[in-house]
Amino acid sequence: MTKIDFFALGGIDERGKNCYVLTINGDSYIINFGLSTIPAVKLGVQWMAPDVNWIQNNRSSIKGIFIGTPDTDNAGALEFFANELANVPIYTTDFGASIIATRFVRINKQNIRVMTPMKPEKIGKVFVTPFLIFNQAPRSVGFVFTTDLGCVVYVDDFVVSSNRTITFEDEISSLTKITQHKCLALIANCSLAGESIGFTNPKHRVLNFFDKVLSDNQKATIVFGFYDSDYYRALTLISLVILRNRPICIFSKLLWQQIQFLKQKSYFNISKATFITPSDLTKHPNAIIILFESKLLLYDKIIDLLEEDNEFLKSDNSVVVFGENTVAGYERDEANMFDEIAQKDIRFYKIPQDILPTKASNEDHKQLISLLKPEHIIPVGGLYRHLCEYQKMALQCGVSKQQILLLKNGKGVSFEGEKIKQLTKTFNVDHEDHYVSASGFVGEIDNSIVERNMMKTSGVVIANIVYDKQKSTIIKHEFTLNGVVEQTPENQKVINTIIEDSNRNITNLLKSTTTLQHRETMNEIRRSICKLFEKRFDKRPLVIVILVYSSDLTN
């Protein structure tokens, strides 16, 4: 009898750190192993990683890690846990293999397995078939796991596109050739569900915007800044610059190496490009400079480039273009960057709000659902409100609410039996987030480093809670704040609201998590309080919880 389990170690009710586990008859398939960034922390800890302990404890069952879109959110943790993954195969496309081999130097290159789109490969007890999707990275893929109960389809950010260029090809319309109209479950990244109606195409296209910037500044040196996952926009710009016969200077080893790979594979034509080095910039006053950095570094890199005494950047003949949409959590970094640029009296542009990122809007999602007609849908890759927005969208496709499974990290579902429609139970998996720094994993022995950085940047919250088990209610809940926010009447009103929201969250948690150990319960309470402060004050304070049960007081 076939048994399928699915749960997440990251990527649900959070941004990034995508990591999902699909277990089929005892064989485990890990989809993504990414990081989430912590923008508030500039020193020490910068990322959060999924639970590597689960991987170590279940290593014998793991058949591989599957990376469809090789960016930080999906693959960043590979670098920091190379030892733990020493013999675990990593399945991806040729472009994904090139990215992983280039960016993650600690990974054993012999572990990387290149899959061919639309070609099924037996891995463990099932066939796995990758299919091309169009998003920000060339040759990105989703995966179809074929089982006796039907197919399980995973798809990351995607856009339904008429684009037929080999660099950004799309095979979503061919999915039914793989599934044979038997889709047990669709696991889909929420992307822009609820945020953008209609199709993303053609609202994602940046060609006209870039063309206008180039036309308006034909004699200027132009600096373009892109996130190091957004190959679509960077390559679109390069194609346009080649047509305009302007020199290009790429300030990114990663982008340069991947351009060479794409050229070698005949995925991208740069035969007529004029590439120059930074030392040649003074000879080319109309050059295009491309910065290609992570979210944590791009803003600072742009400012550093402008602050250096570069002869090729003069305020009367220089332009800066920030080629990305605003990302939640980085608004302050972006504003500070634009302020620095303005102070230097340099012209700057930003991607207009009506140009969308290469992520699925409502109609893209609806078309995929209508095509696959899945028995169950599991939205992933976003905050809980994003999952709820995806649910609202899916209901418009005639899908019942019972078919849409809203999960949390560590909570999973099982499918078992001979009938495709049989959903048998939900379950919990012990998991724990890990802090990661630029120097590697920060374990429990180094938690003081994490705490010092959290206190330095966001202060401390001490939560005193007294809980009545018999009445299932909190009878005392006090916050003591140190260095979090200024103690003003306005801030106190917000704090009071946080206490009320926290009261509800903790009460619900204590009611529903009787099976959790005390340590896990305390961790959940800390995360809940920290998220409320992050939402209201853009702070991630160190949270110390003192939880007392009223029965303990009487005893």
Looking at this protein, list some descriptive labels.
alpha/beta, eight-stranded mixed β-sheet, six-stranded mixed β-sheet, globular
Question: What is shown here, in short?
Answer:
By secondary structure, the chain is of the alpha/beta class. Helix content is 30%, strand content 26%.
Q: What would you call the shape?
A: globular
Lateral strand order in the biggest sheet = 8-7-6-3-2-1-20-21
Q: Tell me the fraction of residues in β-strands, as a range.
A: 25-35%
- Rg: 25 Å
Uncertain parts: none
Count the beta strands: 26
Helix content: 25-40%
Mean pLDDT: 86
Descriptive notes:
The chain is α/β, with parallel strands linked by helices and 555 residues long. The strands form 5 sheets. An 8-stranded mixed beta sheet has the order 8-7-6-3-2-1-20-21. A 6-stranded mixed beta sheet has the order 9-10-11-12-13-19. The protein has a 5-stranded parallel beta sheet with strand order 15-16-14-17-18, sandwiched between helices. It is globular.
Topology diagram in text:
Layout: E1 3-10, E2 19-24, E3 27-31, E4 36-37, E5 45-49, H1 52-57, E6 62-66, H2 72-75, E7 90-92, H3 94-103, E8 112-114, E9 121-123, E10 126-133, E11 140-147, E12 150-155, H4 175-179, E13 183-189, H5 207-216, E14 221-227, H6 231-243, E15 248-251, H7 253-264, E16 288-293, H8 298-307, E17 318-322, H9 331-343, E18 347-350, H10 362-372, E19 376-380, H11 384-395, E20 411-416, E21 423-428, E22 434-437, E23 440-442, H12 447-458, E24 460-468, E25 473-482, H13 489-512, H14 518-537, E26 542-549, H15 550-554
Parallel strand pairs: 3-6, 6-7, 7-8, 12-13, 13-19, 14-16, 14-17, 15-16, 17-18, 24-26
Antiparallel strand pairs: 1-2, 1-20, 2-3, 4-5, 5-22, 9-10, 10-11, 11-12, 20-21, 22-23, 24-25
